[in-house]
Amino acid sequence: MINVLFSARDALWPQYQPVLAAEFAKQELEVNLLRETDAPETIDYLIYAPARDDDDLGVFTNLKLIQSLWAGPDKLLRNTTLTQPLARMVDPGMTQGMIDYVMGHILRHHLHTDTFAQAGEWLTDLAPPLPSERTVAFLGIGELGMACAVAARDYGFNVVGWSRTLKENAPIACFAGDDGFRAVLGQADIVVTLLPATPATENLIGVEAVAAMKDGAALINPGRGELVDDEALLAGLRSGKLSGATLDVFREEPLPLDHPYWAEPSVLVTPHIASETRVATASAVVAANIARDVRGEGALYLVDPALRY
Ligand code: NDP
Hints:
Elements: E1 2-8, H1 13-26, E2 31-34, E3 45-49, E4 65-68, H2 74-77, E5 86-87, H3 92-110, H4 113-116, E6 135-139, H5 143-155, E7 158-163, E8 173-176, H6 177-187, E9 190-193, H7 207-212, E10 217-221, H8 230-238, E11 242-247, H9 260-263, E12 267-269, H10 279-294
Parallel strand pairs: 1-2, 1-3, 3-4, 4-5, 6-7, 6-9, 7-8, 9-10, 10-11, 11-12
Helix pairs in contact: 1-10, 3-5
The structure holds NADPH dihydro-nicotinamide-adenine-dinucleotide phosphate (NDP).
């Protein structure tokens, strides 16, 4: 019997509890699934999407693994009491939702939907080319970025990807390093950032990146707010160098009402809704990953504390 503590917002417990119980049963694991505990030293696994930032994780002295319900590990890594192995969420339902969001906004920029909306002008010059005549660059081609890149490729776009390590035998043309970054930006009509927030990715979309982008390119950022130097992006949009931006994530969330993004006509703000963790598919992933660890097969999706993702 293992003790598993579910630590997340109250509203999530009634949704997850029955589904997790069923998934643990499928894994043939005997689990004592708890909502709270007076004996944190007895907890073996923590299913985690903290409602607060200052949890003391040091009290879980026998914890084998923290299984996050979030894909992005940045917020959890800021907790200085975290010493245990951390697995991030890789959820097929979340991936499907992200494909939906990214494809929707690629098509919005591709079709000039926002420019036509209430234009009051007969803008025949903006008849869209074929997707094969547009290049979409994905900065970050991990679980989410690669799934979206393949969806865009399958739709017909010319797709390129960029990551920290160069991908061999990938389904799209891949680049890495500083030269790769400039090469990818220089050819993309639409840039999608699906990178984690780490010291190495902070302000990646800054003055130099904006200058390296094609004239008239658009940015879609469902990754993290820290990836973007807001001043540099706004300057690029206001000068007409960039045609528009769809932003889902911000340094401060909710985005303050006086933030210039709200008033910038070429920016669409969405409220960190690009894709949520889905209870059914995520519960199956959680149970399978804990089962792997219990059986000594090693948990998947472990965050590297040095790389911070
Ligand atoms: P992964 O860890 O699977 O992929 C991360 C990708 O970023 C990898 O390709 C990795 O390169 C690349 N990368 C990391 N650091 C660098 C760097 N310094 N330079 C170049 N490339 C780098 O993450 P996911 O795809 O699962 O998620 C990506 C991010 O999406 C999350 O961290 C989160 O911030 C965000 N997200 C946002 C959501 C929303 O609703 N807005 C929902 C879910 C996630 P390599 O392949 O070489 O390791």
